[in-house]
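User: Hand in any protein.

Assistant:
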Amino acid sequence: MTETATPAERLAVGAPHRELLEQVLDTWSMQVLEHLCEAPARFNDLRRAIPAVTAKSLTATLRRLERNGIVGRAVISTRPVAVEYAITPLGKTLREPVDALLAWTSAHLAEVEAARDRFDDA
């Protein structure tokens, strides 16, 4: 798909743009990125920081983010061997757009909740 593709084409099912957005903006990815933007962390540190995530989901999320170049994985030679995850320079570029989305939700949450109430009451 080229850069001249329309927004509708970029968001079509199976489009690479859509796939990437789905992988980066899912619930667990957002929470993992929030923690890794603060500091590198080991797997169990992330599990404790995000108690609702299962080990299987966290593993899949970290692998997906690593595959996309957003998170890096470093093996630390300790006994036992440990693995530490850190945000990559590419991953750091997500901070501004994600913060913008979160700011939008904060600014418009009351309006959205009112719309939901109107819809549910109809």
